[in-house]
Amino acid sequence: MLPIVLLSIFGIVLLFLGFLKSKAILLPATLLFLLVTLAVNFLDWNKTYLYFNDMLRTNNLSMVFTAIILGSAFMVVALSNSFIEDEAAQPAEYYGIMLFSLVGAVMMVSFENLVMLFVGVEVLSVAMYVLTGSDKRNLRSNEAALKYFLMGSFTTGIMLFGMALLFGATGSFTIAGIGAYAANPQMGLSLLLYVGLLMLLIGLLFKVSAAPFHFWTPDVYDGAPTIFTAFMSTVVKTAGFAALFRLLSVSFGGVYTFWWTILAIITAITLVAGNITAVYQNSFKRMMAYSSISHAGYLLIGLAALGTQTKQAIVFYSLAYSVATISAFGVLLLVAQQRSTQTLSSEGASTESFDAFNGLARQNPLLGFAMAVSMLSLAGIPLTAGFWGKFYMFSTAVERGQIWLLVVAVLMSAVGIYYYFRVIIAMYFRDGAIEPIRVAPFYRYVLLAATILTLGLGIAPGLLQGLF
Amino acid sequence: MLTLALILFPVIAATLLLVTSGDTTKRLAFGAALAELALAVYVFNTFIPNAESQFGFDYPWIGSLGIRFSSGIDGVSVLLVLLTGLVVPFIILSTFERNYERPGAFYALMLYMQAALMGVFTARDGFLFYLFFEAALIPIYFLAAMWGGENRVPVTFKFFVYTIFGSLFMLLALVYLYYQTPATVTAAHSSAIADFYKLKLTPEAQGWVFWAFFIAFAIKMPIFPFHTWQPDTYVESPTPATMLLAGIMLKMGVYGLIRFILPIVPLGVETWGQLAIILSVIGIIYGSIIAIRQRDMKRLIAYSSFSHVGLMAAGVFSQTETGMQGALVQMLAHGINVVGMFFVADIIFSRTNTRQLDQLGGITRTTPKLTVYFMIMLLGSVALPLTNGFIGEFLLLHGVFTYNNYLGLAAGFTIIFGAVYMLRMFQKSMFGPSSSRTESFADLTSSESWVFVPLVVMVFWMGVYPQTFLKVTEPAVANLMKYVGTTAVSLK
């Protein structure tokens, strides 16, 4: 609960800091705030608390998810120093909104009541709509924000409808209450429960961009300023999956047989749609958008095979995915800024194409290496964190005997190698621009930290154990 | 502890090499590889020939899951450890006349590769094996794609995707096996290979576990029809990388067959083994026939290697003791011969700038040393008695004959075809009138000669007194065969 309070206060403080003449204080202040929140988060370690009339429950799992979210936010913010140079940017507002959005994310990982889940989702989403459109001079950014907002509001409606139906069926908004009702199927469960569950699922699956509710993702990810894309693809996804896990494991474990097939089919569609379409992208950023869809698919495997391993699998996967994604976007930011490859195509869409990375490894071994490690991790190659993430996910499904789903996942992982390696090929085996790219020292440390974390978790995945 | 040293030493050496440059790098890399060889030879010498795993190292890796960093050497792995130790220093020595761009990275990648291979051959834990199996791929991919020929990027990419694709199925099988193991004292399941051996899987499960493993290993070796990545990759890779690929890496596949498929899914082998053996035999003949038609030396050797590895797979699937023994010995022999052959091709290419047989000829006139060494390596490859190839092929064919006469007969063509394409290559390149390219062909330099000396020693040693090597593998193979027998019987 403390993180929520602190983040809200810090967000407001940041808005006031925006009145200062110099923007230089904003970035360190935000980083400091995030660190403080991260430290405070662990004060309640090994304790379980209920807050606000049983609306929120914090336990070790929710704290770990909060830590992943705050850590991702910290890294994204650390990579956002270009705001200082951009005259039109309003970093105080951006950072403030990011902190506010984190409030929503923390609610989503620790809700005990569906109303709190709804509030969390909306707090996070509204902030994202604004950040997506924050590049006001860019038409694509505006369009993306509008698209995101319209579709997001629509699914909010569906989700709310679902909650109402669940309340109708069970007479309770608390996930424990719903769980108690759903755990007694012999009494004959109300149809409202099933319909409500499906509608609620649709809402959350939209937020984590699972197919067939993923159509907004490429446009929004592509249109949003890169730094917010990084934020969106990590924070929103982690919070969304934490919420899904909490919801399904606490409330709907009793009706597992009803929803697992549906979720498994959605998983398969997501994997296929994300991976196959990613192959055809010429823009790195759009590829990353489809890659984020495909990773939603891998994460869904763990939910469709809900079992003893799922918790661990989702935590590990979220962490591995977030670190690798942030690192990739971090490199993209530098490359896109300094190699001016944002050429406009005939439709007016910018293409941050793979060619921008040509020869990068030769001029900037560090950037090349960071990018390569992050791509290897996303592709799930051993000795990176991504491999163990996939390993845990696959384990959950094997435990449940869902072999057909795994075969789809395996085939799609092989497809994934194709597009992740395009970047590596461009960086290492093609000749490109001569001039090296400047990397600020702090930026370098963040990328280095992400790379070391990815490799460290790849070599010793046991490090995370015992945390939750 | 020794196995850990075998794995870690190249890693440390390679990481140090990254910061060196110029000729120092070569020498340091060679020194490091020699030290590793000394370690491997020490292991081979002190190895007590029985089925027990020796020189072990065991450490909990992901404790609560029961996954351990567990490595050791038994009779099946010992020859491959020796091969990995033996071949790498001479591959490095073979590059002394050449200068590769960014040598620090080049030699470091080779040593990383060696470390991963050592890991593969000594892993006693299923997931550890998988990890090294995949990790070996990354250095070789960068070696091939950064220093390779013109067409290297798409070719090596195909190789990479192809082999990863296969390995992912192996991962599925491993995870499945893992969940079948009973709980241990400390964890819910175990991923030790020894525990996999104890499993009693249903025939249906054995069937698909067999295929999951088989696809992975068949692509790696490669077995027909999973071989399409191989010739191009061999040709496009820089020769040291090709030597690593053909000399050691493809043995990972054969080793996998012996280590995983036969003991774990004997019923799967019973059901599908015939198909596997037929595919292998098709590969033998198909590879040889294509090899006969090749004009490019490197491509010819690539196809010959494809053909030879088919025989090894057939021998393993024959499920006979001789077949398995043959496969193990032939892995060592083939590793030595193919490295020698690729080195010859590389020497010829570096002096004439061509590998096309019709542009060569008459090299013997100026090169007594090369001719002799080339001929010896070649005789080893065509399995002349008293050379290393003979022992392996004899045992393998014996195994296949025991399994089925007709298949044995078909596989036997490998000897005839092998002689045809190898001697044709020798004749076209070394004899006949010299061409403009080969007129002033210089004989071997001393560093080049030094590459051949140990290889030639091994060719004769294994050919004349194979007992040195057979006796170390024998107990382990007998032990494995016992596994194959008992598991199959107990389920019937």
Automatic annotation (TrEMBL), chain A:
Residues 113-413 form the NADH:quinone oxidoreductase/Mrp antiporter transmembrane domain. GO terms for biological process: ATP synthesis coupled electron transport. One of its GO terms (cellular component) is plasma membrane. It is a multi-pass membrane protein. It catalyses: a quinone + NADH + 5 H(+)(in) = a quinol + NAD(+) + 4 H(+)(out). Keywords: Cell membrane, Membrane, NAD, Quinone, Translocase, Transmembrane, Transmembrane helix, Transport. One of its GO terms (molecular function) is NADH dehydrogenase (quinone) (non-electrogenic) activity. Pfam families: Proton_antipo_M. The chain crosses the membrane at residues 5-20, 25-43, 63-80, 92-109, 187-206, 227-245, 257-280, 314-336, 366-389, 401-421, 442-464. It is found in: Cell membrane; Endomembrane system; Membrane. Its EC number is 7.1.1.-. Belongs to the complex I subunit 2 family. PANTHER family: NADH DEHYDROGENASE. NDH-1 is composed of 14 different subunits. Subunits NuoA, H, J, K, L, M, N constitute the membrane sector of the complex. This is NADH-quinone oxidoreductase subunit N. It comes from Spirosoma taeanense. The gene is nuoN.
TrEMBL record, chain B:
It comes from the Bacteria. The chain crosses the membrane at residues 75-93, 105-121, 127-147, 159-179, 208-229, 241-262, 274-293, 300-319, 331-349, 370-391, 403-423, 444-464. It is found in: Endomembrane system; Membrane. It is a multi-pass membrane protein. Its main location: membrane. Keywords: Membrane, Transmembrane, Transmembrane helix. GO terms for biological process: ATP synthesis coupled electron transport; electron transport coupled proton transport. Residues 124-415 form the NADH:quinone oxidoreductase/Mrp antiporter transmembrane domain. The keyword Cell cycle does not apply. Belongs to the complex I subunit 4 family. PANTHER family: NADH-UBIQUINONE OXIDOREDUCTASE CHAIN 4 (PTHR43507). This is NADH-quinone oxidoreductase subunit M.
